[in-house]
Amino acid sequence: QVQLQESGPGLVKPSETLSLTCTVSGGSISSYYWSWIRQPAGKGLEWIGRIYTSGSTNYNPSLKSRVTMSVDTSKNQFSLKLSSVTAADTAVYYCARIFYRAFDIWGQGTMVTVSS
Amino acid sequence: QSALTQPASVSGSPGQSITISCTGTSSDVGGYNYVSWYQQHPGKAPKLMIYDVSNRPSGVSNRFSGSKSGNTASLTISGLQAEDEADYYCSSYTSSSSLFGTGTKVTVL
Q1: Cα separation of B71 and A2, whole Å?
Q2: Contacts of B97 in chain A (CB under 8 A)
Q3: Chain A neighbors of B7, CB-CB under 8 A
Q4: Which of B69, B100, B75, B59 is nearest to B17 (CA)?
Q5: How far is B1 from B32, CA to CA, in rounded Å?
Q6: CA–CA separation, A52 vs A47, rounded Å?
Q7: Partner B contacted by A100 (CB < 8 A)
């Protein structure tokens, strides 16, 4: 079955760019929307954005100026870049597949801490 | 873009039924039949329980059901079991964005 795995640095310095990749295994990345979602410790889920395999994107308006998503169909991967990070961006970051307008498959999540 | 409003906590005894509400606006919950619900146990990734307001993915117990009226969606858990104790989130999908609810902690007494 399809599985997702997030990867990237667990520690990012303030003002730098957070970069994460989600690798899709057990199925093709094509013809689906894919999303990034984050969750600060002890808090709720926050939608970051979504990307279609054509490269078309939608971002959370509150993060739009700092977010860039991309997709590499040859590697079955999609990626997130979040620029100018602060401590408020410290969270568990999840990647997820969108199917029937819902997030049906999730990665296990990766903790990213913003600290000098 | 404000989070959808859910009660912070709901509790019930084993075997009882509970309902969690999710209130949005006519621009999200009320405007689309694309409400989904997620169950999250501590330290785990969320799990899809309901999609498109009232549809259950394969493998999800039929004790979970969803509905919607106006700008408010609801998740009902019937025959409450100890394993249902978790956090629950609603989500609304629109043509340009998605939005999550504030989350509800379900406690089985």
Answers
A1: 33
A2: 47, 58, 60-61
A3: none
A4: B75
A5: 16
A6: 15
A7: yes
Nearest-by-CA chain A residue for B93: A101
Interface of B with A (CB under 8 A): 1, 3, 32, 34, 36, 38, 45-48, 51-52, 55, 57, 89, 91, 93, 96-103
Is the per-residue pLDDT at B48 higher than 90? yes
A61 burial type by CB count under 10 A (0-12 exposed, 13-18 middle, 19+ buried): exposed
Looking at residues A82-86, what average pLDDT do you find? Answer: 98
Does A42 reach chain B within 8 Å, measured CB to CB?
A: no
Q: Which of B45, B98, B101 sits opposite A106 (nearest CB)?
A: B45
The token duo for A104 is 């049906």
Nearest to B40 by CA among A115, A68, A37, A98: A37
pLDDT value of position B2: 86
The DSSP call for residue A31 is: T
- DSSP for B19-62, written as a single string: EEEEE--TTTGGG-S-EEEEEE-TTS--EEEEBTTTBPPTTS-T
Percent of chain B whose pLDDT exceeds 70: 100
